[in-house]
Amino acid sequence: MGYQVERVLQMAKFDQGDVKFQFREVSMHEIIESVITNFNLQVETMKGMLIPSLHAENDSIIADTVHMTNVIQTCWTMQLNIHPKLPKFLSKPVMSHNNW
Q: How far apart (Å, rounded) are the C-alpha atoms in residues 17 and 42?
């Protein structure tokens, strides 16, 4: 619930042009796990499942945690809207120094 309140407040600030990003080093694995926790009920209701496969060599990025969480949440929400009968999601970020 706290996440949703934070998201609504952040979006209101964004709409008003008042958003102040707080860039710092964050773990993509932690962000994805957080989204899975918040998104899992919706997916389970649709008889689906989220399958995390978080084995990135280096999952650290410089980002605003709330914004990056919203990006992932939005992508997954769009996926559900496009394929509502999709039985599972595979969450597999692949990040290494060679990929950049």
A: 30
CATH number for the domain harbouring residue 20: 3.30.565.10
Name the residue range of residue 6's domain. 2-95
pTM of the model as a whole: 0.67
100 occurs within a structural domain: no
Q: Please list, in sequence order, all residues whose beta carbon lies within 8 angstroms of the beta carbon of residue 6, skipping any fewer than 6 positions away.
A: 66
pLDDT tens string 45-76: 877 777 788 888 899 999 999 889 988 888 88
Dihedrals φ, ψ of 76, to 5°? -70, -35
> Which secondary structure element, helix H or strand E, spans residue 6, and what is its range?
helix 2-15
